[in-house]
């Protein structure tokens, strides 16, 4: 049993660790406990057998299910009161978690990580926890499997691309660039006007179509970006058909651009070309929340050293657009 019950992006950064665990224990039953944000995407994870959901029900109900499933071990990638209590009451024989927060006392194994220092990517901290679990049981620790960690059949993606082309009327010779300007309450983000300005500068490097996406509650931000784009064709896509359809849309894009938020990490799991805009705050850096796509497929921009750590207006978008255009639009990839 593995737990990560917070936001979508946090859960996506567990996938390399899940891949490692499955590679080491191919016949094991691997279940996950997720929060509401992780339900739909977890059902698409090929490394997972069953999904349990913490939707706010009494902790005892979760513990009863855990007890009934008779897990041999549990790993909490992030310690919170509800997950810790459910595993403890559920009498899982061995429980492992990061050595943080008071709830760590409910675990047998406590791995010192000091994530708050942000010395390496979040997904690497998660991988280290799986390595510790495997070492506890004397298992050989294989190399971490490479991505993409989330995939769809080619015919499914061909159909999705045709649907997008028909709906929004862009040429199949153009690069499909998805901009997701919403933050979902995550890290600090750029303004709609700056995303629109960036789109205009990127369009100077080639034939582009910009699809501005919005999740629930983000419609106004997406419309503002679209209205402000003057020099390139664009449209707004409201993601209201579930995370699977949205992930397929991301998968058929040539470039995915956003702040440090859940959909960026879905794009990373799909191994799509990504561009992330991050604050420089220690807990929110581009290193700590690095995407899980190949290094050649990711770009990250943050405020310069002379600016405030949350001053997203200080990011040089002329330079960013030049780097994005040359890397993703000029035939180098």
Automatic annotation (TrEMBL):
GO terms for cellular component: cytosol. GO terms for molecular function: ADP-heptose-lipopolysaccharide heptosyltransferase activity. It holds the Pfam family Glyco_transf_9. Keywords: Glycosyltransferase, Transferase. InterPro entries: Glyco_trans_9, LPS_LOS_Heptosyltrfase. GO terms for biological process: lipopolysaccharide core region biosynthetic process. This is Glycosyltransferase family 9 protein.
């Amino acid at each position: 049993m593995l737990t990560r019950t917070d936001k979508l992006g946090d859960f996506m950064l567990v996938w390399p660790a899940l891949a490692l665990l499955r590679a080491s224990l191919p016949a094991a039953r691997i279940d996950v406990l997720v929060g509401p944000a992780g339900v739909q995407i977890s059902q698409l994870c090929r490394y997972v057998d069953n999904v349990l959901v913490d939707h706010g029900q009494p902790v005892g109900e979760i513990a009863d299910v855990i007890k009934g499933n008779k897990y041999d071990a549990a790993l909490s990638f992030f310690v919170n009161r509800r997950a810790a209590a459910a595993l403890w009451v559920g009498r899982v024989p061995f429980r492992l978690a990061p050595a943080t927060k008071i709830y760590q006392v409910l675990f047998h194994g406590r791995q010192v990580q000091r994530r708050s220092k942000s010395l390496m990517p979040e997904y690497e901290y998660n991988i280290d926890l799986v390595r510790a679990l495997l070492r506890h049981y004397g298992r050989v620790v294989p190399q971490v499997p490479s991505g993409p960690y989330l995939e769809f059949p080619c015919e499914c993606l061909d159909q999705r691309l045709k649907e997008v082309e028909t709906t929004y009327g862009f040429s199949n010779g153009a690069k499909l660039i998805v901009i997701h300007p919403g933050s979902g309450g995550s890290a600090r983000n750029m303004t709609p006007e700056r995303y629109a300005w960036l789109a205009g500068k990127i369009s100077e490097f080639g034939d582009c179509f910009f699809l501005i996406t919005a999740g629930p509650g983000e419609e106004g931000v997406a419309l503002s970006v679209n209205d402000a784009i003057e020099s390139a064709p664009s449209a707004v896509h409201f993601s209201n058909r579930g995370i699977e359809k949205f992930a397929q849309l991301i998968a058929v894009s040539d470039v995915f651009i956003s702040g440090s938020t859940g959909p960026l990490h879905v794009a990373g799991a799909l191994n799509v070309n990504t561009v992330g805009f991050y604050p420089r705050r220690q807990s929110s850096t581009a290193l700590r929340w690095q995407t899980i796509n190949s290094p050649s497929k990711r770009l990250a921009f943050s405020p310069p050293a002379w600016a405030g750590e949350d001053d997203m207006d200080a990011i040089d978008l002329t330079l960013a657009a030049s780097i994005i255009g040359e890397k993703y639009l000029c035939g180098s990839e």
